[in-house]
Amino acid sequence: MRILVDANVPAADACFGGLGEVVRLPGREIDAGAVRDADALVVRSITRVDEALIQEASRLRFVGTCTIGTDHVDQAALARHGIAFASAPGCNAEAVVDYVLGSLLTLAECQGWRLADRRIGVVGAGNVGGRLLGRLEALGIDCLACDPPRAEREGARGFVDLAALIDACDVVCLHTPLVTDGPHATRHLLDAERIAELAPGTVVLNAGRGGCIDGQALRQRLAGQGDITAVLDVWEHEPGIDAALHDLAAIATPHVAGHSLDGKLRGTHQVYRELSRHLGLPARVTLADLLPPPSVSRLVLQGRLEAEEALRLCVRAVHDVRRDHDSLLRESRRQGMARGFDACRARYPLRREFATLEVELRQEARRLSSLLEGAGFIACEHGDLPA
Q1: Active-site positions?
Q2: Residue 194's pLDDT is what?
Q3: Which segments of 55-202 does DSSP mark as H helices, in order?
Q4: Domains in the chain and their CATH numbers?
Q5: pLDDT, tens digit, for every residue of 114-156?
Q6: Which residues pair with 230 in a beta bridge?
Q7: Annotated binding site for substrate: which residue ranges?
Q8: Which residues bind NAD(+) (predicted)?
Q9: Are the C-beta atoms of 134 and 183 separated by less than 8 Å?
Q10: Residue 121 pairs with which residues in a beta bridge?
Q11: Residues paired with residue 231 on neighbouring β-strands, in sequence order
């Protein structure tokens, strides 16, 4: 059995090696010729899986994407060819929430405001948005949710429409899939009209799909009035993104919000389980087999610390979003935007999730326990941590 795997999928040999011959290629080099002799294909989000890719792949019987999103996969085309499909829902959701909280805490420090004083609107309350809302509520932050498909299924209680959210919130976070048509289309969900309605001082954060924002309209608002702030991890036309919009964003990162090692390995393992099931074989490799110990596993806080400063210390012990921003800036200047964008993703350093950090609290820092746990860390008082 020949299994073609995106070179950026971690632990591919450990997972898929027991099922067949593993062949690895960079995602943008996976074309119809490469797929022709494959029995299974495992990708990430940069490979477009459509009729043109699979039409000559007579042996292909399984496609898996190690990502939450599936808009890069034409599932109807796979069904027409009798090809099974699997994705990895929720695999990197925690990592994206980590990214959002880290970005907002960094921005608050830079601009001189407190996250606790802001109302945050979350557009899309699925795997990522739902978890984000849970952590924001645990932190005591005022938040609103907009998710029309969920409101239709579950009732309007707990949801607001997009216009009300834009009108009421200081921060607008997008976490929707890219849907191009139908009653709940999300392409250019923030279009020129809605971007014009954003109040001065609003922060727009997109860690969902680049096409959910009209990038040209956002660039014009940032370049013209310059009275709102953009935090962008996803972009239209990746990897050849709008360099002018990149330069205007307060935090600009190369689609890495979900790139924790934990999330990537979860994604690989979820697809491995599905391929094993498809082949009628037991999944012998466990996720625990794949996860190494974190480089920073314990942090000690003591004395009197302001709440958000304590959060920033813990966040940056795990992941500092400024590193990702600086990396894209540096590599785009060295190699050009498209090549630099891909280089940052291909060489992304190991990053863990908040839940891998144990925070020992001493003295007056003990009062931070519920705050840190709400943010996603493991908080224990002195003497309670395991050896």
Answers
A1: 209, 238, 255
A2: 98
A3: 75-80, 93-111, 127-138, 148-154, 162-168, 192-197
A4: 2-87 (3.40.50.720), 93-252 (3.40.50.720)
A5: 999 999 999 999 999 999 999 999 999 999 999 999 999 999 9
A6: 204
A7: 45, 67
A8: 147, 176, 233, 258
A9: no
A10: 144, 172
A11: 205, 251
Question: What confidence score (pLDDT) does residue 382 get?
Answer: 72
Hey, how many other C-beta atoms are within 10 angstroms of the C-beta on 35? Answer: 22
d(CA 206, CA 212): 8
For 204, which DSSP code? E
Sequence-ordered strand ranges (E) for 175-317: 203-206, 229-232, 251-252, 298-302
Q: For residues 337 and 359, what is the distance between their CA atoms, to the nearest angstrom?
A: 38
Q: Which residues lie across from 344 on neighbouring strands?
A: none
Q: What is the C-alpha separation between 88 and 287, in angstroms, rounded? A: 13
Q: How far is CA 92 from the centre of its chain?
A: 6
CB 30, CB 47: distance < 8 Å: yes
Nearest to 339 by CA among 210, 205, 243: 243
Q: Find where tokens 């429409």 sit.
A: 161
Q: What span, in angstroms and rounded, lies between the C-alpha atoms of 337 and 239?
A: 7
Strands, sheet with 171-174, edge to edge from the N-terminal-most edge strand: 143-146, 120-123, 171-174, 203-206, 229-232, 251-252
183 Cβ partners below 8 Å, 6+ apart? 148
Q: How far apart are CA 179 and CA 182, in angstroms?
A: 8
Residue 339 DSSP SS3: helix
The model's pLDDT over 190-246, given as tens digits with 9 standing for 90+, comes to: 999 999 999 999 999 999 999 999 999 999 999 999 999 999 999 999 999 999 999
- Is the alpha carbon torsion for 357, 362, 365, 370 positive or negative? positive
* Binding site as annotated, residues: 45, 67, 147, 176, 233, 258
Which residues are documented as binding site for NAD(+)?
A: 147, 176, 233, 258
Per-residue pLDDT reduced to its tens digit, 1-60: 999 999 999 999 999 999 999 999 999 999 999 999 999 999 998 999 999 999 999 999
Q: What angle do CA 219, 222, 224 make, to 5 degrees?
A: 100
- Break the chain down into helix, strand, coil percent, rounded to 5: 45, 15, 40
* pLDDT at residue 278, rounded to an integer: 97
CA distance 66 to 91: 8
Cα Rg, the chain, nearest whole Å = 21
How does the average pLDDT of the chain come out, rounded? 96
Burial of 142 (0-12, 13-18, 19+ CB in 10 A): middle
Asked whether the predicted pLDDT for residue 109 surpasses 60, the reply is yes
